[in-house]
Write a structure and sequence with these properties.
Pfam families: Thg1 (PF04446), Thg1C (PF14413). The chain is α+β, with helices and mostly antiparallel strands and 221 residues long. The chain folds into three domains: 100 residues, tRNA(His) guanylyltransferase (Thg1) (Alpha-Beta Plaits), CATH 3.30.70.3000; 65 residues; 42 residues, no CATH class. The chain is built from eight helices and four strands.
């Protein structure tokens, strides 16, 4: 309802996604115990460091603070991304806390989220292309029923001249927010000492490369 009320672009609204990323960035700025976040559409996952004592690890306190802060920032930053659109109703989010047993499980969870992002985005890209071409939503769902990933890529290329792999990485892979270790200042000038900079990226979280290059995020190195 919120996306329809504010006329978000389908299947992806770049402004809405960047707003979510800005809110996630604010979360890492506000709560140092958050080590990484991953977002798709209107959902974000936040990973706290393993030995966090954030509000004595009280589940109700953690979830209420995180959800309320994220929601407030969303409203405050709305005009930065939708300067010509007023908020027609207050945004709101829900949340839950899950305690995973080890680092490998967290990596598996984030990889699963990214796989799910690809599956949903590929389907939605096809679906809305069909709808915008004149099909009803029911007809579009029926046309995609039982299709494989290869079938969807073929449909996009042959019917709409769209190469799915050329779609923005933010749409296909979601967004990852973390503290990167850099040797430049905020203006890009080189500095001697390494510093941490909160970064939004669209890297592959399924393979090992990102994690091998950022072992410090989950305390693996």
């Amino acid at each position: 309802r919120f996306s329809e009320l504010h006329a978000f672009e389908k299947p992806n609204d770049d402004r809405a996604l960047r707003l979510m990323n800005a809110c996630a960035t604010s979360m890492l700025e506000k709560f140092p115990d958050i080590v990484i976040a991953y977002g798709v559409s209107d959902e974000y996952s936040f990973v706290f460091r393993e030995k966090t004592e954030f509000y004595k690890r009280r589940e109700s306190k953690n979830i209420s603070l995180c959800v309320s802060y994220f929601t407030i920032v969303y409203g405050m930053k709305w005009k930065d991304f939708f300067p010509n659109n007023d908020l027609k109703e207050p945004p709101y989010f829900d949340g839950r806390v899950v305690c995973y047993p080890n680092i490998n499980t967290i990596r598996d969870y984030l990889a699963w989220r990214q796989v799910d992002c690809h599956i949903n985005n590929q389907y939605n890209t096809c679906f809305w292309a069909l709808v915008k071409s004149g099909k009803t939503e029911k007809e579009a769902h029926q046309a995609l029923k039982g299709t494989s990933s290869k079938d969807k890529n073929k449909l996009l290329l042959q019917q709409f001249q769209v190469n799915y792999n050329d779609e923005p990485a933010m749409f296909r892979k979601g967004s990852t927010v973390y503290r990167d270790k850099v040797k430049t200042d905020d203006c890009g000038n080189p500095i001697k000492r390494t510093r941490e900079a909160i970064t939004v990226s669209n890297f592959d979280l399924i393979g090992p490369e990102f994690w091998e290059n950022h072992q410090y995020i989950l305390g693996e190195g």
